[in-house]
């Protein structure tokens, strides 16, 4: 399908979804507002339970609420149901376009689960359908109880949220909670509210007694919809805010946002009722908002984007040259002085993949991510050429502790987000060296890091050429970076307190330079195959090479 057509289809689908949603939510708010503000009629009128006077558009409006059967039913009645139906239809259309038809890229996060695209789609559809029957069953069985159905509904939302978060990407999980609540709301309208009203209308037209309990039943479901509206609106727009669904605490954040929406809606429902206390609602809302800000805030001791760089290295003396640091795969160009009293040696070697070599795996990226029509993008996690493995980081693990090293480079290492991929995917830097993250795409990305020793961050990069500079001050192998908006976008950053590291080239070879005579432990790391260790003594015999052999899976 043509990419331009697909983009327009998505745009028109979003536009229609917003239009229908405004019409539906707007009518819901309006009718709830009417019910709250109706006053007893100034004069006794048959069947009139409340009246209200409005002004708009240069005229007065007199609105009366009447009971079914109080008088002859008017010939024309306006039913507010299609707004709800088309909102849900357009929502599921977007779910299919964005999450189902893109090979699961937005739907699945490999860090969360190992579901295939087909499994994730089946899980999504099945869970959304099942959630309605559970929710509806709760209110059919326990709807007359005061507290129990609310508690059961809360635990249902909690369980569904946890289930989606543990099986789908964070972005998809939030959207699924929104469409789940919207599904309940629409089916409340079509399964309960409208049928109840039609049955009462038919009873009135037949001239028999009208069962007003049907109206109370419909009103109860309508009230539930009223409290669902603000959580649904938030989840509709949540894909623009990765600080929520991209956070480690995405489940508590989601639940707090749902609670916040319910409380805001409750306040507006009762604020004109003098008999009900409202201060506690405002106090709770006032506490929840800073709580959410606090939960999503970076660590208090996070390194600033700019400012003084604090090198981790304990011994900073020598300022010569090290041929190892001239590699194009590393931006480490800080010099090391050749020790006058000692000869420096190099460690040469290769990294190979034995056994089964996986075939290149094509990535079905969204068309907006491809630079040209017909471009094929392959998964870069495993790059093998003639049995030699690329993107392997090799470094000195032990034996270097007494070697004086220079301070880290001041020039930032650049990690680009381009065509919905991190470039490079694997990088090695010095502790204390600035890292600049760049968004080279014309659409929204964010950078979320997962660390054990350094300070994590989760920062939006909304526009082309957005840049953020961060510093990792502690040695850590490895720091994981990803884009929560596009969960397949991942990078690995190895942070070293010394300069004795490198990466394998296209032929699997590596070279570590500038080491004096001694015994060393050398470690290799690959994103898929993990780590291997070997010991080496310098100087090596002439022509001797180290070989790290990984086994294919």
Can you describe this structure?
With 553 residues, the protein is an alpha+beta fold. The two termini are 35 Å apart. The protein has two domains: 3-42 and 82-296, no CATH class; 323-551, Sandwich (Immunoglobulin-like). It contains nine helices and 22 strands.
Summarize this, please?
This protein is of the alpha+beta class.
Keywords:
five-stranded mixed β-sheet; 553 residues; 2 domains; alpha+beta
Topology at a glance:
Blueprint: H1 3-37, E1 48-56, E2 59-66, H2 82-100, H3 117-142, H4 148-165, H5 170-205, H6 213-237, H7 242-245, H8 250-270, H9 279-296, E3 344-354, E4 362-363, E5 377-378, E6 384-385, E7 388-389, E8 393-398, E9 413-418, E10 421-423, E11 426-430, E12 434-439, E13 445-450, E14 458-461, E15 466-471, E16 476-482, E17 490-496, E18 501-503, E19 509-516, E20 518-526, E21 530-538, E22 546-551
Parallel strand pairs: 3-22, 9-12, 11-17
Antiparallel strand pairs: 1-2, 3-19, 4-5, 6-7, 8-18, 8-20, 9-10, 12-15, 13-14, 13-16, 16-17, 20-21
Helix pairs in contact: 1-2, 1-6, 2-5, 3-4, 3-5, 4-5, 4-8, 5-6, 6-8, 8-9
